[in-house]
Design a protein that fits this description.
- This protein is of the alpha/beta class and 375 residues long.
- It is elongated and about 70 Å long.
- Helix content is 50%, strand content 8%.
- It has a five-stranded parallel beta sheet with strand order 2-5-6-1-7, sandwiched between helices.
- It folds into two domains: 202 residues, P-loop containing nucleotide triphosphate hydrolases (Rossmann fold); 126 residues.
- The longest helix has 24 residues.
- The chain contains 15 helices and seven strands.
Length: 375
């Protein structure tokens, strides 16, 4: 199996890889922050790209890498032409630039990407980034030091480093080689070593709005005839989550959940069984996981409605606001639903871990919700 055939842990099924994405959509503030630092000639050596999963962190990392490798290095000492070249106002480089071509081909010597490796024995991706991958940085820095150009390391994602790998990376952040930039992608930065966070400058990316979501899906060549507002709402402004919803029929599934919740406290059991069996079909683990996550999201929206007295501004399904307001009319109801959400989440995780019958697991969840509504 060649490198180009290996599965990529940083690729979303059905979407282009971040290095192939032409435009970064909806993250102008993060781009401007980085360019301001670059043009001020005070470019930090470590950057922590944070925000929800699927909002463009990896795309931004690849954009920054291409920009740094293709742009004359004026960040530290002005460079040979530092006083005459205009300050860059965009991270974009021409598609026919040699750096762009090498990045697309996976042959750029100035870039190293740290990600979960492929295990030839199990024929699967490993679950973590190990210390061996991080130790490869020493060799990368020594091999690329002779050209005098910029060097970039992308860690995607830093959350997946095991403790030994994290400590090894910390040493690189403490004593980075000259003209080197490390870009750490993190979906949950609170789980990283505090010393790693303190040695990086944070770039936080925001969830995408519905118009930006529509543009991002169009750019990814994702055929979408569904409600973009509902996709953005259920996907938390994440392109990756929205693509998953489209691929697995998530909007239809959520509408069915809301319709069932509308029958409470007299739950339509036949309809519930049909939904459970459809999601629990053999080989449909992704659909079952999506159903579980959508039920959890419904309960969160329900508790929030009771706590604030205001349903979500954007409905993700017909009559959702009315149903949420009826089931959670007060803060007391919100507390009850929050407790139920926690209990159901624990039971779901346990049930999946011990391989309980999926249909029974889903039915048990809906019956628990019915019991709470009746009480």
């Amino acid at each position: 199996m060649t490198d180009t055939d290996l599965p990529e842990p940083d690729r979303i099924d059905g979407a282009p890889h971040p290095r192939e994405t032409a435009r970064l959509i909806g993250q102008g503030t993060a781009v401007d922050t980085f360019l301001t630092a670059f043009n001020s000639k005070r470019l930090h050596h470590g950057w922590l790209l944070t925000g929800p999963r699927g909002v463009g962190k990896a795309t931004l990392a690849w954009k920054i890498a291409a920009f740094l490798l293709a742009t004359p290095n004026t960040a530290e000492d002005g460079g040979m032409f530092g006083d005459t070249l205009p300050a860059p106002t965009s991270l974009d480089i021409p598609a026919d630039h040699p750096v762009a071509r090498r990045l697309m081909a996976g042959s750029e010597p100035g870039l190293l990407v740290l990600r979960r490796p492929y295990d030839e024995k199990t024929k699967k991706l490993k679950s973590v980034i190990t210390v061996d991958e991080v130790r490869g940085l020493n060799r990368f820095f020594s091999l690329s030091a002779t050209d005098g150009g910029h060097r970039v390391v992308i860690v995607d994602s830093a959350d997946e480093m095991n403790p030994n790998a994290a400590n090894a990376l910390l040493k690189q952040l403490e004593e980075p080689p000259k003209n080197t930039t490390l870009l750490l992608i993190s979906h949950q930065p609170s789980g990283l070593l505090p010393t790693i966070r303190s040695r990086c400058r944070e770039l936080r990316l925001s969830p995408l709005s519905a118009p930006d979501m529509s543009a991002a899906l169009e750019q990814a060549s994702i055929e979408n005839t569904q409600d973009t507002n509902a996709l953005a709402e259920l996907g938390g402004g994440s392109v990756g989550a929205s693509i998953r919803l489209i691929n697995l029929g998530g909007l239809v599934m959520y509408r069915e959940i809301i319709a069932l919740m509308g029958t409470l406290p007299n739950l339509d059991r036949a309809r519930t069984l049909k939904l459970a069996e459809a999601a629990a079909t053999r080989g449909q683990d992704a659909r079952l996981d999506l159903l579980i996550s959508l039920v959890d999201l419904f309960l969160i929206r329900l508790a929030r409605t009771g706590a604030t007295g205001i349903p979500p501004k954007t409905e993700a399904a017909p009559d959702e606001a009315k149903i949420l307001a009826r089931l959670a009319p007060s803060p007391a109801h919100a507390r009850a639903w929050a407790v139920v959400a926690q209990e159901i989440g624990t039971r779901m995780r346990h049930g999946r871990a011990v391989n309980l019958d999926p249909t029974a697991l889903v039915l048990d969840t809906f019956f628990k919700i019915q019991h709470t509504a009746a009480a």
